[in-house]
Amino acid sequence: MQRLSTRDGDFAAKFAAVVDDRRESASDVASAVSAILADVRARGDAVLAELTAKFDGHELDTTGWQVSAEDCKAAFDALDPDLRAALELAASRIRAYHAAQLPENRDYTDEAGVRLGAVWHAVDAAGLYVPGGRAAYPSSLLMNAIPAKVAGVGRLVVVTPTPKGEVNPLVLAAAHLAGVDEVWRVGGAHAVGALAYGTGRIAPVDVVTGPGNAWVAEAKRQLYGVVGIDMVAGPSEILVIADGANDPAHIAADLLSQAEHDPTSQSILITDDAAFADAVAGAVEDELARLATEPTARTSWNDNGVIIEVASFDEAPALANRLAAEHVEIATEDPQAIFAKIRHAGSVFLGRMTPEAVGDYVAGPNHVLPTGRRARFSSGLSVLDFMKRTSFIQLDEAALEAVGPAAVALARAEGLPAHARSISIRLEK
Amino acid sequence: MQRLSTRDGDFAAKFAAVVDDRRESASDVASAVSAILADVRARGDAVLAELTAKFDGHELDTTGWQVSAEDCKAAFDALDPDLRAALELAASRIRAYHAAQLPENRDYTDEAGVRLGAVWHAVDAAGLYVPGGRAAYPSSLLMNAIPAKVAGVGRLVVVTPTPKGEVNPLVLAAAHLAGVDEVWRVGGAHAVGALAYGTGRIAPVDVVTGPGNAWVAEAKRQLYGVVGIDMVAGPSEILVIADGANDPAHIAADLLSQAEHDPTSQSILITDDAAFADAVAGAVEDELARLATEPTARTSWNDNGVIIEVASFDEAPALANRLAAEHVEIATEDPQAIFAKIRHAGSVFLGRMTPEAVGDYVAGPNHVLPTGRRARFSSGLSVLDFMKRTSFIQLDEAALEAVGPAAVALARAEGLPAHARSISIRLEK
């Protein structure tokens, strides 16, 4: 963890180093992934079977290619009642928030007599990658699947590796709850290729979302344009802006809630109170000592943690906008005053009683958010990632007479006579 | 041009071949582009000067790195009055249509007492690639620049190659009209790298849009994630659905308006009238004979043109949805009836007096549209490409008591104890 202060002479340089630190490993899997995708495109299911045997250690023909809807329902029914109620609360709140995102169609006629508008449609089919093992989070399945279903996607397909054939009951339960239509026991770059190109067994989809390792991320990147994808994701991060009136243990817990994700995660505190900064640093050590995820959290905090002391919170929005963090907590007396000046952030958590983790599960907004300063130009996952807009126009003769000649002039100036002709031929009497 | 009929026994296979024909050259420039981008990142302006000398044949230090605002204004003032009026009509109609796209912020408190919402902000800076030479279209500049400015982008930067130092006055005039802030005389993959990474002279931007050759497209693809980009674009295409009541010459002109773009462009006619199909095929030949762009248009029509005869227009929407074309014209008695069943299209042109070219210039909707069947999952350019959404939540103690325990249960089930702790510590009395 490093301590900075805006009062220090070298603050600008040190802060710039924090901003520029990507923390993303430049894993060189591009050519290997490219070969796998070409192979899946050419040989389909045979490649899936071979690579599943190789990487996951089971034979799909024996263990089964799909998890049935019945098995997903059985996993849901077998949940501990409290956990089932928690998943149901999360699903219903996520559904309500995303339903309000549904865009409206437009259809109007302007003063020139031109009918104009746009209609939104869901994609026909979406694929959702769900990692196997430690990072197989039911909350993540809900956050990806529910917006797709709210958007109106007819066919929602999950691919997930099942190492040694073992499934994750929580993930299956979430798939049942979210209304997933198909669950295939394949993972890795080849599973993403199967979703994009289709195979004998798996029909192709139009959009692929969901988290994954470097191979999965690279496969999505290479298939961008063949299918739509969500943003390429990097390590998680949180920026906490907190004054001295907070309980240091609360803020320490918030910082560690990101640090426990991965050694490359980053937690940053901005405060205007040096004594509070010391207290939080101490509380982090206390909290770490009791944490089951201590090794990961400690590495993240030691390597990437930052405490920045500001002379005044007036300095905070500019720093926050430079960082453009995935998560921003504002635990001050008047959080709205700072929030109003923040332009670049994935999601913002306002006030002393809004720990970021509430947003990970049950608040309603999506927890799939831009990382690595990408909040400068991209947004969290939404129903719009599963929909697309078709614009339309309709002219009658009078409208074409009104605006057509200008189009003819422009087409001729651009050296496109057939464009001009398609209009002028209709204006000839 | 090939003629198909849904009555033919081999129609399904032949139509599938049309659908699967990508027409996009798999140019292998990835490694060359990757090297250029790394070089720009490392050496900045020096690389721009070297590659501009090499590819565009002029020295930036002599010809000047930028085109001044005064020069853009002078180009605008020097326009032929009719052309200036046409550009102004186009700009004002594009501005009006895109202003209506501006998204609304949300801010509400639900029954659990959770404050929820989302705020939209423009990106700070956007870069627009404008090709040099033949494909330097002022209309394209307007279609990219105006949505950015309507979105609220503070700094809008154009990069454009000026071969032998020669600028395109129409493009400069459009840049003036659209309110572009900077015009740099650099093109190619290195110009895209300069926009994304920044150089000594050019400050980095957050989003890069605009058309370009294979090198530019590959640079954008590789930089996706460093900056936001618009969709990777392929050859233009039009699907015309027309009945026998149309003037065959009108429909022939519409088909050729796409064919003249590029030899790889595609024009497809669907009609329920065999005699009309013959008449259009004949009219295409007549129109070609008088067209200055005849060589390009003829190659496109010969190589990629398709006429599909259907038994009934009831068959048309399913075919149109398979093709998911960039442009769809519906020139029938009741175009709305067919349009209502079309789910996948970039933009739709309704009725006999709505040639697609009107939409290229003055109708208002964007002419940057998904090609190559990407309308299945993506949309035309809009103000949203230059904006991003920040979600937010705010809980008080009662709200955290209402929804927090469910989040604690889920966090524990996912093996994330610090997530759970950040909530439970606030619920301890």
Describe this structure in words.
Chains A, B: Keywords: Amino-acid biosynthesis, Histidine biosynthesis, Metal-binding, NAD, Oxidoreductase, Zinc. Chains A, B: This is Histidinol dehydrogenase. Two copies of one chain form a homodimer. In chain A, helix 2 crosses helix 3 (45-56), helix 5 crosses helix 8 and helix 17 (397-413) runs antiparallel to helix 18. Chain A is built from 18 helices and 15 strands. The first copy, chain A, has 429 residues and is an alpha/beta fold. Chain A has three domains: 2-24 and 234-363, Rossmann fold (3-Layer(aba) Sandwich); 30-108 and 123-229, Nitrogenase molybdenum iron protein domain (Rossmann fold, 3-Layer(aba) Sandwich), CATH 3.40.50.1980; 395-427, no CATH class. The model of chain A has no long low-confidence stretch (mean pLDDT 95).
